[in-house]
Design a protein that fits this description.
Length: about 200
């Protein structure tokens, strides 16, 4: 893989990851309502799920994914339903407890798997990877090491991009300290989660 092709691919993946969409909204809504850690773990899950999709694209398994699209649809609706559930619970909450009390080990793992379900719940993303690769990369001359590098790029770009959104939304959550502001935060974050879940389900 040439340096020019590598940089072009990095730029394309970065632009795609930074574009507003369900993944970004999921991270931001988690960050505002539950803090940086929860949002960052959701971002890690998104990175892991996207890495799976790009690996399948590299292996030429687009047709296989389309054949088993129902599996990805189940993941999509499960992630959407969980976001709506979180949103309703957040909306009905009178005030937010401290992030330290909320962030139990079980709930932390839920944020990670929520991110995975959001990423894998969009099987059309594999078509994006499969279509952009031939335009930038020479697949005929790619080596196993090149393939690993492509997957690493996708993971790193997603982590950096979602980490940025997580940091911004996590800092914003620190402003909501009074009971009145907590209620406003719960309404905003709950509405954002419900809206994101509906958007994911409707895609």
């Amino acid at each position: 893989m040439t340096l020019t092709a590598f940089l072009a691919y990095c730029a394309a993946i970065t632009f795609a990851a930074a574009t507003p969409g369900p993944a970004m909204f999921t991270v931001i809504s988690n960050g505002v309502s539950l803090g940086f850690v929860r949002a960052f773990l959701a971002g890690l899950g998104i990175a892991a799920g996207d890495a799976v999709l790009v690996t399948l694209a590299l292996l030429g398994l687009v047709a296989l994914v389309q054949a088993f699209e129902w599996v990805f649809l189940i993941l999509k609706y499960a992630g959407a339903a969980y976001l709506v559930f979180l949103g309703i619970r957040m909306w009905r909450s009178a005030s937010a407890r401290s992030h330290g009390q909320q962030a139990t080990q079980a709930r932390l793992s839920r944020s990670f798997f929520l991110g995975i379900s959001i990423a894998l719940g969009n099987p059309k993303a594999i078509l994006f990877h499969a279509s952009i690769m031939p335009l930038i990369l020479d697949l005929n001359t790619m080596t196993f090491a090149d393939g690993l590098l492509v997957v690493a790029v996708v993971i790193c770009v997603n982590i950096v991009t979602m980490g940025f959104y997580a940091a911004l939304s996590g800092r914003a959550s620190s402003w909501f300290k009074t009971p009145r502001r907590m209620r406003l935060m719960n309404r905003f974050a709950g509405g954002a989660m419900i809206g994101t879940g509906a958007l994911i389900a409707a895609r």
